[in-house]
Design goal:
2 copies of one chain form a homodimer. Chain A is mainly alpha-helical and 165 residues long. Chain A has 7 helices and 3 strands. Chain A has helices spanning 4-11, 22-47, 53-64, 72-79, 83-95, 117-138, 144-163, and strands at 69-71, 99-103, 111-115. In chain A, helix 2 (22-47) crosses helix 6 and helix 4 (72-79) crosses helix 5. Chain A starts with a helix and ends with a helix. Chains A and B meet through helix 1, helix 2, helix 3, helix 4 and helix 6 of A and helix 1, helix 2, helix 3, helix 4 and helix 6 of B. The structure holds a DNA duplex (30 and 30 nucleotides).
Chain lengths: 165, 165
DNA sequence: CAGAGAAAGTTTGCTTGTCAACTATTGTCA
DNA sequence: TGACAATAGTTGACAAGCAAACTTTCTCTG
Protein backbone atom coordinates (compact mmCIF):
# COMPACT_ATOMS: atom_id res chain seq x y z
CA UNK A 1 0.00 0.00 0.00
CA UNK A 2 2.62 2.48 1.02
CA UNK A 3 5.52 3.06 -1.31
CA UNK A 4 7.87 0.92 0.71
CA UNK A 5 10.94 2.13 -1.14
CA UNK A 6 10.37 5.60 0.23
CA UNK A 7 8.94 4.71 3.58
CA UNK A 8 12.07 5.33 5.57
CA UNK A 9 12.53 8.69 3.94
CA UNK A 10 8.98 9.59 4.77
CA UNK A 11 9.34 8.56 8.36
CA UNK A 12 12.72 10.12 9.02
CA UNK A 13 12.05 13.68 8.02
CA UNK A 14 13.55 16.20 10.39
CA UNK A 15 10.11 17.18 11.56
CA UNK A 16 9.27 20.37 13.34
CA UNK A 17 8.45 18.52 16.54
CA UNK A 18 9.61 15.44 18.38
CA UNK A 19 8.41 12.77 15.96
CA UNK A 20 6.67 9.42 16.34
CA UNK A 21 3.89 10.02 18.77
CA UNK A 22 2.62 6.52 19.61
CA UNK A 23 -0.94 7.76 19.92
CA UNK A 24 -0.86 9.43 16.57
CA UNK A 25 0.69 6.34 15.03
CA UNK A 26 -2.06 4.18 16.48
CA UNK A 27 -4.67 6.63 15.27
CA UNK A 28 -3.28 6.60 11.75
CA UNK A 29 -3.40 2.83 11.75
CA UNK A 30 -6.95 2.91 13.02
CA UNK A 31 -8.04 5.32 10.32
CA UNK A 32 -6.33 3.53 7.49
CA UNK A 33 -7.43 0.10 8.60
CA UNK A 34 -11.00 1.26 8.93
CA UNK A 35 -10.97 2.77 5.49
CA UNK A 36 -9.28 -0.23 3.93
CA UNK A 37 -11.65 -2.78 5.39
CA UNK A 38 -14.69 -0.65 4.69
CA UNK A 39 -13.55 -0.35 1.11
CA UNK A 40 -13.18 -4.09 0.77
CA UNK A 41 -16.60 -4.75 2.24
CA UNK A 42 -18.18 -2.22 -0.08
CA UNK A 43 -16.41 -3.72 -3.01
CA UNK A 44 -17.50 -7.24 -2.18
CA UNK A 45 -21.10 -6.20 -1.69
CA UNK A 46 -21.18 -4.25 -4.92
CA UNK A 47 -19.63 -7.17 -6.76
CA UNK A 48 -22.44 -9.37 -5.45
CA UNK A 49 -24.98 -6.76 -6.59
CA UNK A 50 -26.10 -6.18 -3.05
CA UNK A 51 -26.96 -2.92 -1.25
CA UNK A 52 -24.23 -0.80 0.32
CA UNK A 53 -22.65 -1.40 3.69
CA UNK A 54 -24.76 1.05 5.73
CA UNK A 55 -27.83 -0.96 4.81
CA UNK A 56 -26.20 -4.05 6.22
CA UNK A 57 -25.32 -2.22 9.41
CA UNK A 58 -28.92 -1.16 9.87
CA UNK A 59 -30.30 -4.61 9.21
CA UNK A 60 -27.73 -6.35 11.38
CA UNK A 61 -28.21 -3.94 14.26
CA UNK A 62 -31.96 -4.32 14.19
CA UNK A 63 -31.67 -8.07 13.91
CA UNK A 64 -29.77 -8.17 17.18
CA UNK A 65 -32.25 -5.93 18.95
CA UNK A 66 -34.92 -7.32 21.29
CA UNK A 67 -38.01 -7.20 19.10
CA UNK A 68 -35.98 -6.65 15.97
CA UNK A 69 -36.77 -3.01 16.37
CA UNK A 70 -35.11 0.04 17.86
CA UNK A 71 -35.93 3.66 18.54
CA UNK A 72 -34.53 5.97 15.95
CA UNK A 73 -32.30 7.56 18.52
CA UNK A 74 -30.89 4.28 19.73
CA UNK A 75 -30.24 3.13 16.21
CA UNK A 76 -28.51 6.38 15.34
CA UNK A 77 -26.29 6.01 18.36
CA UNK A 78 -25.44 2.41 17.56
CA UNK A 79 -24.46 3.34 14.02
CA UNK A 80 -22.71 6.49 15.21
CA UNK A 81 -24.43 8.73 12.70
CA UNK A 82 -26.59 11.81 13.05
CA UNK A 83 -30.27 11.50 13.68
CA UNK A 84 -30.99 13.47 10.59
CA UNK A 85 -28.81 11.15 8.60
CA UNK A 86 -30.54 8.12 10.03
CA UNK A 87 -33.99 9.42 9.15
CA UNK A 88 -33.03 9.47 5.49
CA UNK A 89 -31.21 6.18 5.64
CA UNK A 90 -34.22 4.49 7.20
CA UNK A 91 -36.45 6.17 4.64
CA UNK A 92 -34.52 4.43 1.90
CA UNK A 93 -34.76 1.05 3.55
CA UNK A 94 -38.47 1.52 4.08
CA UNK A 95 -38.89 2.46 0.46
CA UNK A 96 -37.14 -0.80 -0.39
CA UNK A 97 -39.64 -2.70 1.74
CA UNK A 98 -37.06 -3.88 4.26
CA UNK A 99 -38.17 -1.88 7.28
CA UNK A 100 -41.26 -0.45 8.81
CA UNK A 101 -41.80 2.63 10.93
CA UNK A 102 -43.88 2.22 14.08
CA UNK A 103 -45.04 4.81 16.53
CA UNK A 104 -44.97 4.49 20.25
CA UNK A 105 -48.28 4.55 22.11
CA UNK A 106 -47.03 5.83 25.43
CA UNK A 107 -44.73 8.51 24.03
CA UNK A 108 -45.88 9.87 20.76
CA UNK A 109 -42.56 11.52 20.05
CA UNK A 110 -40.66 8.31 19.53
CA UNK A 111 -40.80 6.13 16.45
CA UNK A 112 -39.35 2.70 15.98
CA UNK A 113 -37.59 1.20 13.00
CA UNK A 114 -38.74 -2.39 12.72
CA UNK A 115 -37.21 -5.15 10.67
CA UNK A 116 -39.52 -6.78 8.14
CA UNK A 117 -39.23 -10.33 6.79
CA UNK A 118 -37.83 -9.01 3.54
CA UNK A 119 -35.16 -7.28 5.57
CA UNK A 120 -34.23 -10.48 7.35
CA UNK A 121 -34.06 -12.22 4.03
CA UNK A 122 -31.73 -9.65 2.56
CA UNK A 123 -29.65 -9.70 5.70
CA UNK A 124 -29.14 -13.43 5.39
CA UNK A 125 -28.03 -12.83 1.84
CA UNK A 126 -25.50 -10.18 2.79
CA UNK A 127 -24.15 -11.82 5.92
CA UNK A 128 -21.96 -14.48 4.29
CA UNK A 129 -20.24 -11.93 2.09
CA UNK A 130 -19.48 -9.67 5.03
CA UNK A 131 -18.44 -12.59 7.16
CA UNK A 132 -16.06 -13.84 4.49
CA UNK A 133 -14.44 -10.47 4.01
CA UNK A 134 -13.98 -9.93 7.71
CA UNK A 135 -12.54 -13.39 8.10
CA UNK A 136 -10.10 -12.68 5.30
CA UNK A 137 -9.07 -9.41 6.89
CA UNK A 138 -8.92 -10.50 10.51
CA UNK A 139 -8.13 -14.16 10.76
CA UNK A 140 -5.39 -13.96 8.16
CA UNK A 141 -2.89 -12.76 10.72
CA UNK A 142 -4.77 -12.67 14.00
CA UNK A 143 -5.90 -15.49 16.20
CA UNK A 144 -9.36 -15.40 17.69
CA UNK A 145 -7.85 -14.48 21.02
CA UNK A 146 -5.96 -11.62 19.44
CA UNK A 147 -9.09 -10.40 17.72
CA UNK A 148 -10.76 -10.35 21.08
CA UNK A 149 -7.87 -8.48 22.59
CA UNK A 150 -8.04 -5.99 19.77
CA UNK A 151 -11.71 -5.49 20.42
CA UNK A 152 -11.09 -4.85 24.09
CA UNK A 153 -8.47 -2.23 23.40
CA UNK A 154 -10.69 -0.50 20.90
CA UNK A 155 -13.54 -0.53 23.36
CA UNK A 156 -11.30 1.12 25.92
CA UNK A 157 -10.47 3.89 23.50
CA UNK A 158 -14.07 4.28 22.51
CA UNK A 159 -15.25 4.57 26.07
CA UNK A 160 -12.64 7.23 26.70
CA UNK A 161 -13.76 9.10 23.63
CA UNK A 162 -17.44 8.87 24.45
CA UNK A 163 -17.26 9.56 28.14
CA UNK A 164 -16.08 13.13 28.10
CA UNK A 165 -18.10 14.88 25.44
CA UNK B 1 -23.27 4.47 24.79
CA UNK B 2 -25.35 1.37 24.36
CA UNK B 3 -28.42 1.08 26.53
CA UNK B 4 -26.71 -1.10 29.08
CA UNK B 5 -29.91 -2.07 30.80
CA UNK B 6 -30.99 -3.85 27.66
CA UNK B 7 -27.64 -5.07 26.53
CA UNK B 8 -28.12 -8.65 27.52
CA UNK B 9 -31.44 -8.75 25.78
CA UNK B 10 -29.85 -7.35 22.66
CA UNK B 11 -27.03 -9.86 22.71
CA UNK B 12 -29.06 -12.90 23.55
CA UNK B 13 -31.61 -12.79 20.80
CA UNK B 14 -32.28 -16.18 19.33
CA UNK B 15 -30.55 -15.10 16.15
CA UNK B 16 -30.85 -16.88 12.88
CA UNK B 17 -27.22 -17.95 12.98
CA UNK B 18 -24.63 -18.92 15.58
CA UNK B 19 -24.14 -15.60 17.31
CA UNK B 20 -21.11 -13.66 18.50
CA UNK B 21 -18.63 -13.84 15.69
CA UNK B 22 -15.37 -12.51 17.20
CA UNK B 23 -14.39 -10.91 13.90
CA UNK B 24 -17.65 -9.10 13.59
CA UNK B 25 -17.41 -7.98 17.19
CA UNK B 26 -13.95 -6.61 16.57
CA UNK B 27 -15.14 -4.92 13.41
CA UNK B 28 -18.01 -3.25 15.19
CA UNK B 29 -15.62 -1.95 17.82
CA UNK B 30 -13.31 -0.70 15.12
CA UNK B 31 -16.09 1.13 13.34
CA UNK B 32 -17.58 2.69 16.44
CA UNK B 33 -14.24 3.68 17.89
CA UNK B 34 -13.21 5.27 14.65
CA UNK B 35 -16.44 7.22 14.44
CA UNK B 36 -16.31 8.28 18.06
CA UNK B 37 -12.74 9.52 17.98
CA UNK B 38 -13.22 11.20 14.63
CA UNK B 39 -16.24 12.97 16.03
CA UNK B 40 -14.31 14.20 19.01
CA UNK B 41 -11.46 15.47 16.89
CA UNK B 42 -13.85 17.30 14.60
CA UNK B 43 -15.62 18.79 17.55
CA UNK B 44 -12.42 20.00 19.15
CA UNK B 45 -11.18 21.55 15.92
CA UNK B 46 -14.47 23.27 15.26
CA UNK B 47 -14.53 24.58 18.81
CA UNK B 48 -11.10 26.10 18.22
CA UNK B 49 -12.35 27.63 14.96
CA UNK B 50 -9.92 25.60 12.95
CA UNK B 51 -10.38 23.78 9.63
CA UNK B 52 -11.84 20.28 9.52
CA UNK B 53 -9.96 17.07 10.17
CA UNK B 54 -9.22 16.14 6.54
CA UNK B 55 -7.25 19.33 6.19
CA UNK B 56 -5.12 18.32 9.12
CA UNK B 57 -4.54 14.91 7.63
CA UNK B 58 -3.33 16.45 4.39
CA UNK B 59 -1.04 18.90 6.11
CA UNK B 60 0.35 16.33 8.53
CA UNK B 61 0.96 13.78 5.80
CA UNK B 62 2.77 16.27 3.61
CA UNK B 63 4.79 17.51 6.55
CA UNK B 64 6.17 14.04 7.09
CA UNK B 65 7.02 13.57 3.43
CA UNK B 66 10.57 14.00 2.13
CA UNK B 67 10.39 17.44 0.53
CA UNK B 68 7.11 18.26 2.22
CA UNK B 69 5.48 17.28 -1.01
CA UNK B 70 3.84 14.18 -2.44
CA UNK B 71 2.44 13.03 -5.72
CA UNK B 72 -1.33 13.24 -5.83
CA UNK B 73 -1.57 9.50 -6.13
CA UNK B 74 0.65 8.85 -3.15
CA UNK B 75 -1.25 11.34 -1.07
CA UNK B 76 -4.58 9.82 -2.04
CA UNK B 77 -3.32 6.41 -1.05
CA UNK B 78 -1.99 7.63 2.27
CA UNK B 79 -5.32 9.26 3.10
CA UNK B 80 -7.25 6.32 1.70
CA UNK B 81 -9.53 8.44 -0.41
CA UNK B 82 -10.27 8.53 -4.12
CA UNK B 83 -8.08 10.47 -6.47
CA UNK B 84 -11.05 12.45 -7.60
CA UNK B 85 -11.85 13.28 -4.04
CA UNK B 86 -8.29 14.33 -3.36
CA UNK B 87 -8.21 16.68 -6.32
CA UNK B 88 -11.02 18.69 -4.82
CA UNK B 89 -9.65 18.53 -1.32
CA UNK B 90 -6.28 19.82 -2.48
CA UNK B 91 -8.03 22.48 -4.53
CA UNK B 92 -9.58 23.80 -1.35
CA UNK B 93 -6.30 23.87 0.50
CA UNK B 94 -4.65 25.62 -2.40
CA UNK B 95 -7.41 28.19 -2.47
CA UNK B 96 -6.70 28.75 1.21
CA UNK B 97 -3.05 29.40 0.43
CA UNK B 98 -1.79 26.39 2.36
CA UNK B 99 -0.59 24.25 -0.53
CA UNK B 100 0.89 24.60 -3.96
CA UNK B 101 0.61 22.43 -7.02
CA UNK B 102 3.82 21.60 -8.84
CA UNK B 103 4.34 19.71 -12.03
CA UNK B 104 6.98 17.11 -12.64
CA UNK B 105 9.58 17.83 -15.29
CA UNK B 106 10.43 14.29 -16.21
CA UNK B 107 6.87 12.97 -16.28
CA UNK B 108 4.36 15.58 -17.19
CA UNK B 109 1.46 13.46 -16.04
CA UNK B 110 2.25 13.72 -12.37
CA UNK B 111 1.62 16.71 -10.19
CA UNK B 112 2.80 17.28 -6.67
CA UNK B 113 1.01 18.82 -3.74
CA UNK B 114 3.55 20.89 -1.84
CA UNK B 115 3.24 22.30 1.63
CA UNK B 116 3.62 26.07 1.88
CA UNK B 117 4.80 28.03 4.94
CA UNK B 118 1.23 29.05 5.70
CA UNK B 119 0.34 25.38 5.71
CA UNK B 120 3.08 24.57 8.19
CA UNK B 121 1.92 27.41 10.36
CA UNK B 122 -1.65 26.19 10.40
CA UNK B 123 -0.46 22.67 11.04
CA UNK B 124 1.42 23.81 14.12
CA UNK B 125 -1.75 25.45 15.28
CA UNK B 126 -3.85 22.35 14.80
CA UNK B 127 -1.40 19.81 16.11
CA UNK B 128 -1.76 20.48 19.83
CA UNK B 129 -5.53 20.16 19.67
CA UNK B 130 -5.32 16.87 17.83
CA UNK B 131 -2.58 15.64 20.09
CA UNK B 132 -4.58 16.47 23.19
CA UNK B 133 -7.69 14.72 21.95
CA UNK B 134 -5.78 11.61 20.97
CA UNK B 135 -4.00 11.58 24.29
CA UNK B 136 -7.35 11.83 26.07
CA UNK B 137 -8.77 9.00 24.02
CA UNK B 138 -5.79 6.67 24.01
CA UNK B 139 -3.68 7.19 27.08
CA UNK B 140 -6.69 7.30 29.38
CA UNK B 141 -6.83 3.54 29.54
CA UNK B 142 -3.94 2.31 27.44
CA UNK B 143 -0.26 2.36 28.18
CA UNK B 144 2.14 3.39 25.48
CA UNK B 145 3.11 -0.22 25.00
CA UNK B 146 -0.52 -1.18 24.59
CA UNK B 147 -1.06 1.60 22.08
CA UNK B 148 1.84 0.20 20.13
CA UNK B 149 0.42 -3.27 20.32
CA UNK B 150 -2.90 -1.94 19.12
CA UNK B 151 -1.19 -0.31 16.19
CA UNK B 152 0.54 -3.52 15.25
CA UNK B 153 -2.67 -5.49 15.28
CA UNK B 154 -4.41 -2.89 13.19
CA UNK B 155 -1.54 -2.88 10.73
CA UNK B 156 -1.86 -6.63 10.40
CA UNK B 157 -5.51 -6.31 9.56
CA UNK B 158 -4.86 -3.51 7.15
CA UNK B 159 -2.18 -5.42 5.30
CA UNK B 160 -4.55 -8.35 4.97
CA UNK B 161 -7.25 -6.08 3.65
CA UNK B 162 -4.98 -4.32 1.19
CA UNK B 163 -3.10 -7.32 -0.08
CA UNK B 164 -5.86 -9.18 -1.84
CA UNK B 165 -7.86 -6.56 -3.71
C1' DC C 1 8.50 4.33 -35.23
C1' DA C 2 3.55 3.83 -34.85
C1' DG C 3 -0.25 2.69 -32.34
C1' DA C 4 -2.51 0.14 -28.67
C1' DG C 5 -2.66 0.15 -23.91
C1' DA C 6 -1.52 1.72 -19.25
C1' DA C 7 -1.05 5.35 -15.91
C1' DA C 8 -1.84 10.07 -13.55
C1' DG C 9 -5.02 13.64 -12.81
C1' DT C 10 -9.07 16.14 -13.47
C1' DT C 11 -13.96 16.85 -14.24
C1' DT C 12 -19.02 15.81 -13.99
C1' DG C 13 -23.11 14.03 -11.90
C1' DC C 14 -24.89 11.94 -8.11
C1' DT C 15 -25.41 9.91 -3.42
C1' DT C 16 -24.91 10.44 1.21
C1' DG C 17 -24.47 12.49 5.52
C1' DT C 18 -24.04 16.77 8.44
C1' DC C 19 -25.75 21.06 10.39
C1' DA C 20 -29.16 24.00 11.76
C1' DA C 21 -33.91 25.16 11.94
C1' DC C 22 -38.38 23.43 12.78
C1' DT C 23 -42.57 20.61 14.60
C1' DA C 24 -44.52 17.97 17.96
C1' DT C 25 -44.68 15.90 22.35
C1' DT C 26 -43.36 15.37 27.09
C1' DG C 27 -41.36 16.84 31.53
C1' DT C 28 -40.77 20.33 35.23
C1' DC C 29 -41.73 23.59 38.63
C1' DA C 30 -43.55 27.82 40.32
C1' DT D 1 -52.44 24.65 35.88
C1' DG D 2 -49.54 27.02 32.71
C1' DA D 3 -45.44 28.44 30.77
C1' DC D 4 -40.74 27.18 29.77
C1' DA D 5 -37.38 23.96 28.96
C1' DA D 6 -36.06 19.44 27.26
C1' DT D 7 -36.52 15.54 24.14
C1' DA D 8 -37.56 12.86 19.61
C1' DG D 9 -37.72 13.11 15.14
C1' DT D 10 -38.00 15.22 10.51
C1' DT D 11 -36.82 18.55 6.89
C1' DG D 12 -33.98 21.61 3.76
C1' DA D 13 -29.75 23.55 2.29
C1' DC D 14 -25.25 22.43 1.72
C1' DA D 15 -20.61 20.13 1.54
C1' DA D 16 -17.82 16.30 0.69
C1' DG D 17 -16.55 12.18 -1.42
C1' DC D 18 -17.29 8.36 -4.97
C1' DA D 19 -17.74 6.37 -9.58
C1' DA D 20 -17.18 6.80 -14.16
C1' DA D 21 -15.93 9.24 -18.22
C1' DC D 22 -12.38 11.99 -20.17
C1' DT D 23 -7.60 14.23 -21.24
C1' DT D 24 -2.96 13.98 -21.39
C1' DT D 25 1.30 11.71 -21.18
C1' DC D 26 4.09 7.81 -21.03
C1' DT D 27 5.36 2.80 -22.16
C1' DC D 28 5.85 -1.12 -24.66
C1' DT D 29 5.60 -4.05 -28.39
C1' DG D 30 5.31 -5.45 -33.22
Amino acid sequence: MYPMSEQSAVAERSGTSADVDPHREAWISLTQTHAAVTGRLQEALTAAELPPLPWFEVLATLDRAPEQRLKMGELAEALVITRGGLTKLVDRLIKAGLLERNFCETDRRVSYATLLPAGVELLEEMRPIVRAELAAAFSAKLTVAQADELREMLDSVRSSACGMS
